[in-house]
Amino acid sequence: MRERTVRALGLVAALAYATFIVWLYVRQPQSIAEVTGGLTATIGAYRVDQQAFDDGLRFFRRDQFAEARAALERADPAQQDPRTQFYLAYSYYRQGWGRLYQDDELFARGLERVNKAIALAPSGRLVVDDPDLQLRSADELKAELEAGLRTDISDLNPLRVFRRRK
Amino acid sequence: MSATVEAIALPLLLLTVAWLGGVRVTDRIALVPPPLFALVLGVLLLGVLVRSGAFAPDRLMNRSRTVLANANGFFVLTALFAASVQAFNLIMPETGLPHVIGNLFLLVLLLNTLAASPDRVRVLRSLLVTFGFAFVIKFIVLAALSDPSGGALKRVLLVMLEGLTLGTLTQTAFNSVTGYLAFATLALFLIALALLPSSEKFLPVDFDRRLERSRTDDRDAIDRDAGS
Questions:
Q1: Which residue in A has a C-alpha nearest to residue B82's C-alpha?
Q2: Does the residue B78 lie in any domain?
């Protein structure tokens, strides 16, 4: 009886451990916070820090992007919330946007974040209902960031100086 | 082999090797899945272990065992394969000429060992040397060459190897944590290999005779004590 118990417990523990390892290889977490956040998100128990999120949003609307990102990162330390990741991506877009040229590094980081937001959103669809934004879906933001990173003949169009930040 | 070793110790050891075998620490932590060639080497290593008697899969899975015991055995077999693959993933140089040469070296070595059919002890010794040598090459020699800050060893080796490798010698520079982790992982892997259930028929020929003689001596001693 004791041997059966040991074997059964061993099998369950080994299966759980193997599942955890596969999960680690798929998700590639970079910190303990990401590991615990990812695990709680798997069972639907992950919550962002609402206070930090609100602070981040307030900074974002005042165009204080570095401060906004610091607060948003604090709100979602495990990088599991698609909405927070969307605002982070948007902050990179707005900070990197320029009338004459874009900051490619910031746009690349924004693209990385928006891809993460899309990956986290259910069925990959993410729409943020915020009247302050002109790009309200992750797909639009992604297209805008990709267009900013692309180099083509339209970059030489002098009328570009009249376009507006979204 | 006890149920505790088979159901708990071996799976946990082997799964830990399968996990840590892919860890690479640079400015971030990456978990690297094994390349296809590591799967080939993993299969060959299983072949070597079975052929030498260092691993007897029939002691883990057979008709006389219960379903639960067979499930434990199957898990050990699967985990052993995953650990072997990741151990090769760990010791293989990542890129360039060292990657190609390292792969060929391991392939030939395993094929040679398979053909030679050594016994369990010799295979375990041989694997200790192989993994140890590969560890030194990747995490000490190549790491020194790829270290951006450089050092005396780097300058000496670069002068010696200059021109021979057409600039394909340098590897990704890992954080030193990777090397320590790799050492611990390989040690765990070799411990796990030593714990595997081995085949009785490959024990030294005179082992049974010695065992029987020892038992006879014990019985004689007991009889003498009882008589006196």
A1: A18
A2: yes
- Helix B176-195 and helix B67-91: axis angle, to 10°? 140
**Mean residue pLDDT across chain B:** 85
Q: Which residues contact A29 (CB under 8 A, 6 or more apart)?
A: A35, A38, A78
- Give how far A73 is from chain B: nearest CA, Å: 17
Say yes or no to pLDDT of B204 above 60: no
With CA atoms as reference, the chain A residue closest to B79 would be: A18
pLDDT of B170: 67
- Number of domains chain B contains: 1
A21 and B30 within 8 Å at the Cβ level: the answer is no
Domain of B54, in residue numbers: 3-203
Q: Which of B8, B28, B33 sits opposite A10 (nearest CB)?
A: B8
d(CA B10, CA B195): 7
Contact between A53 and A59 under an 8 Å Cβ cutoff? The reply is no
Q: Looking at the domain assignment, is residue B224 inside a domain?
A: no
Please report whether residue B218 resides in a domain.
no
| Paired strand residues for B23 | B31
Total CB pairs under 8 A between chain A and B: 58
- Complex ipTM, two decimals? 0.77
Query: Which chain B residues are Cβ-neighbours of A4 within 8 angstroms?
Result: 66, 68
Q: Do B68 and A13 touch (CB under 8 A)?
A: no
Query: Residue B193 domain-assigned?
Result: yes
